[in-house]
Amino acid sequence: MQEKDMVSDILGGTKASINNYTKAISECANQQLRSTFVQLRNEAEQFQYQLFQIAEQKGYYTPAPPADSTSIQKVKTGLNG
């Protein structure tokens, strides 16, 4: 397995973990457990961002170009609609 594939797999797994932590947080009644999930999610988000930066620097990932102000306004209008 090449490094690019490994980075991609880890990024995908980390993003899935972040989603699962977020779901657990929203359904958790125990404050101590909820705080633990929040901490784990925050750590996973930091790790995901660091890995994303590495992938971008190595050319493994090219983010979408920035949206223009008209496109941003259309999304805002649609969400507020």
Describe this structure in words.
The chain has 81 residues and is mainly α. The chain has helices at residues 3-27, 31-57, 69-80. The longest helix has 27 residues, at 31-57. 2% of the residues are buried. The model has no long low-confidence stretch (mean pLDDT 94).
Query: How much β-strand is present in the residues?
Result: under 5%
Protein structure class? mainly alpha
Q: Could you describe the largest sheet, including whether it forms a barrel?
A: none
The 3D shape can be described as flat
Number of helices: 3
Report the uncertain regions. none
- The average pLDDT is 94
Give the SSE order as H and E letters: HHH
Number of strands: 0
C-alpha-based Rg, rounded = 17 Å
* Amount of helix: over 70%
In angstroms, what separates the terminal alpha carbons? Answer: 46 Å
